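Anyone up for a design puzzle?
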């Protein structure tokens, strides 16, 4: 945590003991009594950057510590959050079966599918096409997740083969980025990540602007999408970055924002209905 002024008295009646003991027990490190406005201004000008909270003598070890900060990189993010086995969540009134890839999925993605009559099979991030054929789902959901999307080379390779199965697919956030990479697109790290629940997104087909919830530091590069196989369907109203892709060569669409946002905004939850309709249409063929 980072705070301007330190307060050692809890403000919640449920808090027992003192704050120092709580932070130590939770192994949380923090810093206080700094000019947080100055820090904010620096980040606004320079963009997202690495930082360090340390008890080391920063003046004596300045170059050593700076090297650690510059070289720091999160690796294996998806591997650290995905589950290692399949889990099954039945719908009360089952109408179809959906595989949900766990790249670090939010529970409400699963809930939105289950309440629409989808039995959900949550699978590990690196599940391959052969396993998907064995499960034989009616639809495939690619979840959100952490880290640099380009790092997930095995998952991207798997998605290339999974896409050939002809099963309707819907991707959210990291799932959106991985599908783009699997289809020849590129991703880039944003100078300023999109965070929060009031991000405006324009649907390029309808022209409508939706309020969305977002939490990402990478984006699909608009011009990297091959127009012969896909098209950008949504863009961010602020910086015009890619917020959605609809594919022409496969039965799939993806979005960068979170239509499953719980408790809101709920503007784009209709996308789950569209996905379920895609599944229904596919089963009629």
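Challenge accepted. My sequence:
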């Amino acid at each position: 945590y980072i705070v301007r002024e330190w307060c050692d008295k809890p403000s919640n009646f449920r808090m027992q003991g003192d704050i120092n003991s709580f932070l130590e027990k939770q192994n949380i490190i923090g810093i206080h009594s700094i000019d947080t406005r100055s820090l904010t201004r620096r980040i606004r000008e320079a963009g997202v950057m690495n930082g360090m909270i340390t008890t080391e003598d920063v003046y004596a070890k300045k170059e050593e510590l700076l090297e650690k900060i510059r070289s720091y990189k999160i690796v294996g993010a998806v591997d650290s959050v995905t589950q290692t086995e399949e889990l099954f969540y039945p719908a009360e009134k089952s109408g179809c079966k959906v595989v949900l890839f766990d790249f670090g999925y939010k529970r409400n993605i699963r809930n939105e599918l289950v309440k629409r009559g989808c039995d959900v099979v949550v699978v590990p991030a690196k599940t391959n096409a052969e396993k998907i054929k064995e499960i034989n789902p009616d639809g495939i959901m690619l979840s959100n997740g952490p880290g640099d999307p380009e790092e997930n080379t095995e998952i991207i390779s798997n998605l290339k083969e999974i896409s050939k199965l002809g099963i309707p697919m819907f991707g959210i956030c990291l799932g959106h980025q991985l599908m783009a990479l699997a289809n020849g697109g590129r991703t880039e790290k944003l100078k300023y990540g999109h965070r929060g629940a009031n991000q405006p997104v324009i649907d390029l087909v309808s022209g409508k602007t939706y309020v969305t919830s977002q939490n990402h530091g990478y984006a699909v590069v608009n011009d990297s999408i091959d127009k012969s196989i896909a098209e950008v369907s949504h863009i961010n109203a602020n910086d015009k970055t890619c917020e959605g892709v609809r594919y022409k060569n496969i039965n799939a669409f993806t979005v960068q924002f979170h239509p499953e946002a719980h408790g809101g905004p709920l503007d784009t939850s209709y996308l789950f209905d569209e996905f379920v309709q895609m599944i229904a249409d596919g089963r009629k063929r």
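A detail worth pointing out: The CA atoms of residues 31 and 55 lie 10 Å apart.
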